[in-house]
Structure formats: structure tokens, C-alpha cells
Design brief:
Helix content: 25-40%
Radius of gyration: 13 Å
Order of helices and strands: EHEEHHE
Strand content: 25-35%
Number of helices: 3
Mean pLDDT: 95
Strand order of the largest sheet: 2-3-1-4
């Protein structure tokens, strides 16, 4: 099962908006993407502008589906970002 850890830095003035966006994205993802097993956003305590999202998918196809769905909110999501996200792909042992 593929997993992802995404680290996202947002603009300081967009932190509260990002929190709301991430919570809604997580709820929508879990409700609409049956192959998404976990989608858990976190905010770093030592840097509130940095968010880390742990994602777990049933299959590579489910991960690809999420990528397509994420593109649909890309403009709104991009407006929050302060730089490119760091995406790490993992394989569960």
C-alpha cells in the first residue's frame, strides 16, 4: 500500500485559511475517494506555517485518483503556498 508524507509551507497571512482548507480537503478526500485509507493533516507546533499531511492509499491507482482530484483544487491550494510542497513517497513494510 502506498503512503505519502507531504510537507507544505504556507504564507504567514494564510495560516488560518490553510487550516480550514486542509480540514475540508481531508474530509472531502476521505468521503469521495474510497481508495484513500488515511488523509491526516498536521500543523507543526514549532512552525505554524508548516503543515505535514500523512496519506495512505489502498493501491497505486487510488493514489493516482487522488492526484487527479487534487488538481481540481489546485488554484485555491496554490494561493496558500509559500513555495513548492515536499512530497515523499513511501512503501509500507
Amino acid at each position: 500500500m502506498p503512503s505519502v508524507v507531504a510537507t507544505i509551507k504556507v504564507k504567514a497571512e494564510k495560516v488560518e485559511e490553510a487550516k480550514t482548507f486542509m480540514k475540508q480537503l481531508a474530509a472531502d478526500t476521505l468521503a469521495k475517494e474510497k481508495g484513500t485509507l488515511a488523509y491526516l493533516p498536521h500543523q507543526r507546533k514549532d512552525d505554524p506555517t508548516t503543515f505535514v499531511i500523512y496519506e495512505k492509499y489502498q493501491s497505486s491507482d487510488a493514489l493516482k485518483e487522488h492526484g487527479k482530484n487534487l488538481a481540481a483544487v489546485g488554484k485555491e491550494f496554490g494561493a496558500l503556498l509559500d513555495g513548492a510542497p515536499e512530497i515523499v513517497y513511501l512503501a509500507e513494510l
